[in-house]
Write a structure and sequence with these properties.
- This protein is of the alpha+beta class and 222 residues long.
- The chain folds into two domains: 147 residues, MM3350-like (Structural Genomics Hypothetical 15.5 Kd Protein In mrcA-pckA Intergenic Region, Chain A), CATH 3.10.290; 34 residues, no CATH class.
- Helix content is 21%, strand content 29%.
- The strands form two sheets. The protein has a nine-stranded antiparallel beta sheet with strand order 2-1-9-4-3-8-7-5-6, sandwiched between helices. A three-stranded antiparallel beta sheet has the order 11-10-12.
- A hairpin with a 5-residue loop joins strand 5 and strand 6.
- The longest helix is centred in the middle third of the chain and has 13 residues.
- The structure holds zinc ion (4 copies).
- One zinc ion (ZN) binds next to helix 6.
Length: 222
C-alpha cells in the first residue's frame, strides 16, 4: 500500500501537489483567493488537514464553518471514507484514550483550546483519523454546507498480487484468510476463486478498504 510521494489535487485550480506542499499551496492558490474575495469579516472558517492515522497516503483538506457542530464532520468522514455498517464513532482530544468530545460541540469552541482531534470509527475494526487545524480565516464561506472539500489525495497506485500490473479490484478473502494484499488487475479479478466475503470489488479512494465490510463508494456527500 505504500505510495511514495503521495499526491493530491487542489479542487480550486486543478493542479497536483505533493502531500507536503498542499497546505502551503492552498493558502496561496490564486483561484482560491479569487473565490474567497476580499471580505475579512463574516464567518470564521477553519482549514483542516484530515489524514488516516496509519495509511498516511490518504488525506484531504477541508474548510469547515466555525458555527458547525462536530456531527457534521463525523457525517462527512463517514460519507467520503468510512461508512460500512453504521458503527459507533467518537471524537477525542489527547489520543485515542483521551477525553471524548461530544459531537454536538461547536467547532469554534473546540478549536479555541486545541488544534488537533482524533476520530475513531468502529471500536472493533477501528479506523483512526487525525484532524488538524492548519489555517483559519474570517470571511465568506464558499458553500452553504458546513464543510467544503478543498483538496484530496489521488488514488494510490497498487499492483496486482498475481502479475504486478496496476490493480483495480480487491478481494477481502485474500486479506482475511490468506494474509495476501488482495489487489487484482482486471484480468486476474475475472476468474478469481474467492467469494466467501463477496466477489472482488472495485478499489476506491479510502483508507477503510479491506476493513470490515467496507466497499466504498468513497464519494463526498456534497
Ligand atoms: Zn490551487
Ligand atoms: Zn462494518
Ligand atoms: Zn494481474
Ligand atoms: Zn481472493
Amino acid at each position: 500500500m505504500a505510495n511514495k510521494g503521495s499526491r493530491g489535487i487542489c479542487l480550486f485550480c486543478g493542479a497536483a501537489y505533493a502531500k507536503r506542499g498542499m497546505t502551503k499551496h492552498l493558502s496561496g492558490c490564486k483561484k482560491r483567493q479569487e473565490a474567497i474575495g476580499n471580505a475579512n469579516s463574516g464567518a470564521t472558517l477553519y482549514h483542516l488537514l484530515i489524514q488516516d492515522a496509519y495509511s498516511k497516503e490518504y488525506w484531504m483538506h477541508l474548510e469547515m464553518k466555525g458555527t458547525a457542530q462536530l456531527i457534521a464532520l463525523d457525517k462527512y468522514l463517514r460519507s467520503i471514507w468510512l461508512e460500512c455498517c453504521g458503527h459507533m464513532s467518537q471524537f477525542s482530544i489527547g489520543g485515542w484514550r483521551g477525553d471524548e468530545i461530544p459531537k454536538s460541540s461547536f467547532v469554534q469552541s473546540i478549536f479555541e483550546y486545541t488544534s488537533e482531534l482524533e476520530h475513531i470509527y468502529d471500536f472493533g475494526t477501528s479506523s483512526h483519523t487525525l484532524v488538524k487545524v492548519v489555517g483559519k480565516r474570517t470571511g465568506k464561506p464558499l458553500t452553504k454546507h458546513p464543510i467544503m472539500l478543498m483538496a484530496r489525495n489521488e488514488m494510490p497506485v497498487v499492483t496486482c498480487m498475481e502479475c504486478e500490473q496496476p490493480a483495480r479490484w480487491l478481494c477481502n478473502e485474500c486479506i482475511y484468510e490468506d494474509n495476501a494484499s488482495g489487489y487484482l488487475c482486471d484480468e486476474h479479478a475475472k476468474n478469481h476463486p474467492h467469494d466467501n466475503y463477496g466477489e472482488p470489488f472495485e478499489l476506491v479512494n479510502s483508507p477503510r478498504m479491506g476493513m470490515c465490510g467496507y466497499q466504498g463508494p468513497a464519494d463526498p456527500p456534497y
